[in-house]
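Task: sequence design from structure.
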């Protein structure tokens, strides 16, 4: 079956720089653009036009982040403007999924978001565990989808090498958002233990499966089939929208990671996420780029991921 797959990109995403030699660099997106062209996928995806108005984007950001956090990001020049633009792109994707302009979408955004919470301000030495993130794009998209539309239950899966501590924080007590993360055990940011299952009414709706150094396709796929799918079933979770925090630093040959997920592995994970979406919510999948620091490898993994979103195998 062929899908209409949206694609979010913007020239501003290429301008934000954390300094020469920093792994979270514009080269990442340049490599993706180039591989999308090389593979011909750039002519198959639908580029999204940014129509959503800024006040709506700000309102959504405020659903997740504190005034203090927002002030710290907006005070950081181009980084702050780019971070806003990343959220804007992701929320446009929610709009276009809701209006059925697209079936699913990949958002090639920078900066990433899944470590963002409100536990410190940027650039003043107080930031704790926020990595290269500013606003939590995926978490904001989930809250926006709930508040603006009839998407009340959101499934958020995070296959980045690092634990999505910001996303866990945002929904830890919330039974309407199921958060599932695979990540390195004992790595940055030092969170993501399996005993963290959520709290109060949200107990059972947060699932952390840390994996050891060297984890490959069969390890991550087993985490899905043996732990994640049964956990979803246990709480009878039927999502209205599936959001992927698509980090590709879990790929083989990543300079910041020690996993060995292959491009075929990402294709299989994508297919499994789509199977859940097909079963529960007419295939609605919103995928947001998180990490991935070997530009060429990242680009190949993204092409594999987007091919499956388009309906390939
Ligand atoms: Zn990461």
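Answer:
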């Amino acid at each position: 079956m062929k899908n209409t797959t949206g694609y979010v990109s913007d020239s501003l995403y290429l301008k934000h720089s954390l300094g020469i030699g920093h792994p979270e660099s514009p080269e990442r997106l340049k490599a993706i653009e180039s591989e999308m062209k090389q593979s011909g996928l750039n002519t198959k995806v639908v580029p999204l036009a940014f129509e959503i108005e800024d006040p709506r984007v700000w309102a959504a950001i405020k659903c997740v982040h504190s005034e203090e956090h927002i002030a710290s990001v907006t005070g950081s020049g181009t980084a702050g403007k780019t971070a806003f633009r990343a959220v804007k792109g992701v929320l446009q994707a929610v709009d276009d999924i809701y209006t059925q302009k697209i079936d699913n979408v990949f958002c090639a955004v920078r900066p990433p978001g899944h470590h963002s919470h409100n536990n410190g301000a940027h650039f003043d030495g107080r930031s704790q565990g926020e990595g290269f993130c500013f606003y939590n794009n995926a978490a904001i998209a989930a809250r926006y989808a709930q508040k603006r539309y009839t998407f009340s239950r959101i499934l958020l899966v995070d296959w980045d090498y690092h634990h999505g501590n910001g996303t866990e924080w945002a929904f830890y007590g919330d039974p309407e958002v199921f958060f599932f993360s695979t990540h390195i055990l004992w790595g940055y940011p030092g969170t993501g233990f399996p005993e963290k299952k959520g709290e109060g009414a949200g107990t059972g709706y947060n699932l952390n499966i840390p994996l050891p150094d060297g984890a490959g396709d069969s390890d991550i796929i087993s985490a899905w089939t043996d732990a994640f799918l049964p956990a979803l079933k246990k709480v009878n979770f039927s999502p209205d929208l599936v959001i992927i925090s698509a980090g590709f630093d879990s790929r083989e040959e990543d300079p910041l990671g020690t996993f060995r997920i292959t491009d075929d592995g990402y294709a299989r994970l994508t297919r499994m996420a789509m199977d859940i979406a097909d079963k529960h919510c007419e295939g609605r999948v919103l995928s947001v780029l998180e990490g991935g620091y070997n530009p060429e490898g990242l680009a190949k993994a993204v092409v594999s991921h987007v091919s499956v979103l388009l309906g390939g195998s």
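The first strand starts at residue 5 and ends at 8.
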